[in-house]
Amino acid sequence: MNFDVVTFGSAFVDVYLASPDFKKVGKTLCEVYGGKVGIKKMVITTGGGATNTAVGLERLGLQTACVCCVGRDDWGLFIRKELHREGVSQLYIQQVAEPTSYSTILVTEDGGRTALVFRGASNHLSWSKVEWAKLDPAWFYVSSLGGDFNMLTKIVRQAEKTGAKIALNPGSQEIVAATKLKAFLPKIEVLILNADEAKILPGDETKCGAKMVAITAGRKWATLIYGKKRIKLPAIQVKTIEETGAGDAFGCGLVAGLVKGWDLERALKLGIANGAAVTEHYGPKQGLLFAPEAEQWLK
Questions:
Q1: Residues 157, 246, 249, CA angle at the centre, nearest 5°?
Q2: How would you class 65 by CB atoms within 10 Å of its CB: exposed for 0-12, middle for 13-18, buried for 19 or more?
Q3: What is the rounded CA–CA span in Å between residue 241 and residue 238?
Q4: Quick one: average pLDDT of 251-276?
Q5: What is the average per-residue pLDDT within 11-17?
Q6: Can you tell me the distance from the alpha carbon of 274 to that of 129, in angstroms, rounded to the nearest whole number?
Q7: For residue range 108-133, what is the model confidence (pLDDT) as tens digits?
Q8: What pLDDT digit, counting tens, does each position of 136-167 carry?
Q9: What pLDDT, on a 0 to 100 scale, did the predictor assign at position 24?
Q10: Is the pLDDT of residue 206 over 80?
């Protein structure tokens, strides 16, 4: 089957716990050791860069599949069911004995959060188990690979072989290996970073090697750099409930616009709108825009 986009990265089950009693001291979340904290709201959903972006792209009208790894457990089945419901192909999902990746996210009243993360099965995503000969999408969307540069090498080689374009939103383990990461960037169509990550990469972002660079600054702005062209747009101000997945939503919105052949400013606007919409809900998927909704936001 031919896909518009195949995504790579992690697949998580996320449990969100929100409480007005979570105590913040500066940038630290503090709770009494041995005490109890009442929870106002609990939401159980799926997350992870591969599944978030696959669902977001599918909702915007593109045929998608995702390459990720889950455990042979009920949480793995939970992820598969949600992807099936959203229309995302499961052809390339890997399974291992390790438990499915899991996180608990503690959400404060202002929408900020602290995540307790167990990567589990996502750490066992294997390039050797990918059916490379069958992968011929128009684009690859690559999110966090847990520092697996062998996988990134294989993706780049497959893209060169088939003529696919690559969108890369590197995870923290790729970012900390910035010098190693930079060697791949000339092969990347669009590199997606937040403002803090952009500071870590050596050199100016306009000379990093990627054809396009998108940089987000949370609730402030987003910028798309293409050669000497720089488009900077303000974030859309919404009532933020919770921010997890906003970066993935921005990325898949931007890439959806590029896949559809939109001009750069309109594609950037779609990324910004998608990111804003996600923050109005708990979890990374509920607020992802469908194509008709996206048109309304863009107006």
A1: 50
A2: buried
A3: 9
A4: 98
A5: 97
A6: 32
A7: 888 788 999 999 999 999 999 999 99
A8: 999 999 999 999 999 999 999 999 999 999 99
A9: 86
A10: no
Q: Are 268 and 254 in contact (CB under 8 A)?
A: yes
DSSP for 75-110, please give it: HHHHHHHHHHHHT-B-TT-EEESSPPEEEEEEE-TT
Task: Tell me the C-alpha distance between 72 and 17, whole Å.
Answer: 25
| Model-wide pTM > 0.85 | yes
The tokens of 61 are what? 């009208």
Q: Are 7 and 66 within 8 A, CB to CB?
A: yes
Q: What mean pLDDT, rounded, does the chain reach?
A: 95
Give the C-alpha separation, 45 to 266, whole Å: 30
> Which region among 144-148, 239-243, 246-250 has the lowest average model confidence (pLDDT)?
239-243
What is the β-pairing status of strands 139-142 and 113-118?
unpaired
Q: Above 70 in pLDDT, residue 202?
A: no
Question: Ramachandran region of residue 78, left (φ > 0), alpha (ψ -120 to 50) or beta?
Answer: alpha
Rounded to whole angstroms, the Cα distance separating 97 from 291 reads 37
Q: Is the pLDDT of residue 257 over 80?
A: yes
